[in-house]
User: Which sequence fits this backbone?
């Protein structure tokens, strides 16, 4: 019998417990970006530290990741502390360090969720099905892109052919892990950071840019993630303001059945 | 000569440095809510811990506050640590504790900001000027409301007179501190939490509800805040999804001159 190889996502987010209660992992070259790894894989790894912790209760409701400094290739240390556990909620503080220096901080809220009154006010975007759209050619992009299949609906980056009077910052695409992998909370957290900086769409011009802080709210439960499986999810992202070196971004991730799985917000540094 | 009395906001967010480097403050009854203080005053106090820290550089770009447990009336301890200081950014971890138990955690990103290309894609809401709108009667509301003058444009809470087919979660109002106080980063952070839970607007029905985690992005600089002075700012907030005991909220705070001062997001617990 052959053992099926680990998916690159599982390899990149894998953590090993140390004797002192900390966790160790390794920045995987497969998810490398321009400076350090793709922010989404770091977010997923930090969330994974809480997800796999023996004291964890419930499922993720909120995750904030602050990118304080670059993560170098190779080993890192994660400390995940359940700062406070209530009857149905749990608050986590998580840090990632290399060589004794903190490069990323995170907080997470987990909760035991139960059925309540429900409504979705955001509208499912009008979008053609993924099958008819050509996957993005990731050959010339930074390595992490090759772990995703992205079928763009609108909002290509650095599209200088767009008329100046049609410039907005909206990107919509279908996205799934490549090769396909069943969606879970960690991979959903990573996908929330898969939208390139909005300034590449809005101007459209390349400038140095990177996520400084990202917050994701998880609306999905485990049953919805299981139902989604490894089929593409629909992502939509836009900015509201660019100024003095920073712009925001708000994103929605939808299941192909029209359920809002997560909303995610970030603030992005840009130069010039 | 008489000394002018401290504004309630400055009294409630005041911190005193202890010999061990921590800060002490006190939950002010003037900002009391149903269980513990108004979340906005706690956010402002935590931000204030970084703003007044001798090692602080720059101005706030992002603030995340996690409400892990109730804050009781009386004294609390805040520890604010500049986890990492780069050339132009600084990352903070901040905790608020009472009796040795953490009740609130926060992270903040500060930055030295400089002029860059700028654009606002979000639209300034169409709204009548504040002078023609009646201030909200706060007499029967929880105490913290009386520190604000709120002139509602739309989205009253628990408005059972709304036709069922017009139910959305949008609230818009003009808001300022009462008595008037010049806007600064701390008071702007507090105002970002001044929107009552969206579920009170959307259903509209009273249920137990409260903010669990809030993230604010600051687009304003000190000059814009100074220009705004103590005149009302325009706030707008809506939810995108309600389900399994949690709903999100996205808010915008605009100057009366049409500048987007802050965008703020939160996840709110609700029962039933």
Assistant:
């Amino acid at each position: 019998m052959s053992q099926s190889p680990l998916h690159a996502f599982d390899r990149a987010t894998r953590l090993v417990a140390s004797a002192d209660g900390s966790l160790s992992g390794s920045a995987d070259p497969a998810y490398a970006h321009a400076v350090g790894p793709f922010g989404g894989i770091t977010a997923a790894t930090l969330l994974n530290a809480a997800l796999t912790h023996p004291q964890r209760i419930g499922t993720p409701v909120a995750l904030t990741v602050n990118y304080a400094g670059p993560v170098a290739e190779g080993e890192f240390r994660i400390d995940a502390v359940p700062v406070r556990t209530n009857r149905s909620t749990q608050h986590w503080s998580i840090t990632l360090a290399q060589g004794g220096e903190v490069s990323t901080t995170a907080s997470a809220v987990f909760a035991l969720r139960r059925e309540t009154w429900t409504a979705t006010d955001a509208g499912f975007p009008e979008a053609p099905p993924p099958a008819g759209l050509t996957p993005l050619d990731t050959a010339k992009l930074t390595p992490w892109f090759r772990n995703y299949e992205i079928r763009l609906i609108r909002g290509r980056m650095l599209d200088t052919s767009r008329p100046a009077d049609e410039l907005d910052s909206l990107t919509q695409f279908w996205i799934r892990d490549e090769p396909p992998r069943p969606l879970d909370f960690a991979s959903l957290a990573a996908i929330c950071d898969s939208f390139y900086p909005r300034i590449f769409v809005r101007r459209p011009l390349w400038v140095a840019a990177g996520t400084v802080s990202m917050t994701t709210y998880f609306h999905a439960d485990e049953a919805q993630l299981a139902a989604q499986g490894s089929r593409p999810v629909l992502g939509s992202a836009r900015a509201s303001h660019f100024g003095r070196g920073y712009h925001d971004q708000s994103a929605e991730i939808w299941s192909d059945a029209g359920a809002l799985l997560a909303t995610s917000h970030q603030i992005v540094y840009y130069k010039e």
